[in-house]
Amino acid sequence: MNELCRLWESRQAGQKIRVLSLASGSAQATIEAMAVFLAAYADARGNVELHLVDRSGSSLLRAAHLARVRGVGDHVFIHTQDVKSF
Length: 86
Prior knowledge:
The chain is an alpha/beta fold. It has three helices and three strands. It has helices spanning 2-10, 28-40, 57-69; strands at 17-22, 48-54, 76-80. The protein has a three-stranded parallel β-sheet, covered by helices on one side. Strand 2 (48-54), helix 3 (57-69) and strand 3 form a beta-alpha-beta unit. The chain starts with a helix and ends in a 6-residue tail after the last strand.
């Protein structure tokens, strides 16, 4: 979360932040950090994306569910792929 805050505060106007997590699994900690960040920086909504890449569909289903429950589903993008092919 600290890195997200630093990036958000040092970005140029209109710049989006995109976070990529490779072999992410269910990404629980990453999604939790995104939720806390967006609660603290409401103006970041619509300007921050989290891309999760994993070949395990079941792990990514858990990630998508957690993102919806934590209210950040619109910011999380799921890619069911092998890291090499991504």
